[in-house]
Amino acid sequence: MRIFAWHVHGSWMTAFVQGRHRTFVPVLPDRGPDGRGRARTWTWPDSVVEVAPSAARGLDVDVVILQRPHERALAARWLGRRPGVDVPAVYVEHNAPQGAVNEMRHPVADLPGTTLVHVTHFNRLFWDAGPARTVVIEHGIVDPGPRYEGTLARGAVVINEPARRGRVVGADLLARLGKAAPLDLFGMEVAAFGGIENLPQAALHRALAKRRFYLHTMRWTSLGLSLLEAMQLGMPVVALATTEVPAAVPPDAGVVSNRLDVLEAAMRMLLHEPERAREMGRAARRAALARHGLARFLGDWDRLLAEVTE
Question: Domain 152-292 - what CATH class?
Answer without folding.
Answer: alpha beta
